[in-house]
Amino acid sequence: MQFDQAGAQALMEITSRPELVFVRGQGSWLEDHQGKRYLDFMQGWAVNCLGHCPQPVVEAITRQASTLLNPSPAFYNQPSMDLARRLTQASCFDRVFFANSGAEANEGAIKLARKWGQLKRGGAYKIITFEHSFHGRTLATMSASGKPGWDTIFAPQVDGFPKAKLNDLDSVRALIDDQTVAIMLEPVQGESGVIPVTAEFMRELRELTHANNMLLIVDEVQTGVGRTGAMFAYQHFGVEPDIMTLAKGIGGGVPLAALCAREEVSVFKHGDQGGTYNGNPLMAAAGLAVFDTIAAPGFLDSVNARAEQLSKGLIRLSDKHGMEGERGLGMLRALKLGRDIGPALVKAAINRAPEGLLLNAPRPNLLRFMPALNVSADEIELMLSWLDELIAQAD
Ligand SMILES: *Cc1c(COP(=O)(O)O)cnc(C)c1O
């Protein structure tokens, strides 16, 4: 099959893509338009938590598609109620609003915190976020993000997101004033290069927000739903946040997101929040299949076993090639290359023959690994052996 130049030309140019069209996927493997296979350790940026086309999700979608697609969010549907119950029972939250993307869930979290500030805190609206954080691409979530340069691309910004330094409590304290309503953070900063918060910092933030009558918001769009080896990453730290957002893995490959909040904080009035597709039963059915797979006895144990295998393998590679080690939490890990060969490695990996390898370099000196949570031990060893060769060739 030829590459479809005219088709590519019809898509708006927003990023540089290789001239490949992926036509099918199964588990940790993708296949392109020329029949070449790729071992996928990106999985759509941690979206395909059960790999490509996982059977439980495919079956759930197929069943739901021929039963009920869209009664409209003006009415209840059972899959969305079932999934909301699963999420509230597995967490410290009481209420769920479903959305379609991480940015939209975070936008909802920001609105909810501001609403709570209006009702309970005399109009306090500022939300302290962190340098290098990533919360999405709407105007408000770009403003909340700490990505360098994002304050000017689409100026003027949405006001009210002062930036502190991760794992530095004094930098947070220095920003608090009587207009501060919340602190929002990723338990592991994903896009900035897999930087986990310390347990101490997370606990200090919880104490600080309690002491100042402020909300603690965790953006678990990348870390939630099993990615870090716990159902939700905040559970590693022994704290209970007030608001949590989920997306990426929760849908296992389909657009699904969730805004979760404690009862006292669930203060939207009718009309404050909504969306044509919120709680769509087709997406909720996919979410249920994902959740039940991950919550099944033993699943997270095997995620942790595979994560340890990956971590050890990355340390071996780091030692062998004079790199700077690895870091991460569960199945969200990074190899610190110690030199700016990340982009070259990504390119060499995809061009590898006869089979390619899909890797991600969020920074030039770093590779990030987000395999399927059910990746096999053999697939991890295969990836490590290919990466070993690719590094040797790149140096
Ligand atoms: C990916 C991501 C987002 C944005 O999610 P979209 O679905 O792309 O809007 C927000 N926060 C974090 C932590 C993310 O990793």
What's the number of helices?
A: 12
Total domain count: 2
Number of strands: 17
- Portion of residues within helices: 25-40%
**Annotated CATH homologous superfamily of the largest domain:** Type I PLP-dependent aspartate aminotransferase-like (Major domain)
CATH topology group of the largest domain: Aspartate Aminotransferase, domain 2
What is the residue-mean pLDDT, rounded to a whole number? Answer: 97
What's the quaternary structure here?
A: single chain
Shape: globular
The top-level CATH class of the largest domain is Alpha Beta
> Biggest β-sheet: count, sense, barrel?
7 strands, mixed
Rg over CA atoms: 21 Å
Instruction: Kindly report the spatial arrangement of strands forming the biggest sheet.
Output: 4-12-11-10-7-5-6
Please tell me the CATH architecture of the largest domain by its name: 3-Layer(aba) Sandwich
Order of helices and strands: HEEEHHHEHEHEHEEEHEEEHHEEHEEEH
Poorly predicted ranges: none
Molecules bound to protein:
pyridoxal-5'-phosphate
Distance between the termini: 35 Å
Structural class: alpha/beta
Key structural traits:
four-stranded mixed β-sheet; Aspartate Aminotransferase, domain 1; seven-stranded mixed β-sheet; alpha/beta; cytoplasm; EC 2.6.1.11; Acetylornithine aminotransferase; binds pyridoxal-5'-phosphate; arginine biosynthesis; 395 residues; Aspartate Aminotransferase, domain 2; AcOrn/SuccOrn_fam; 17 strands
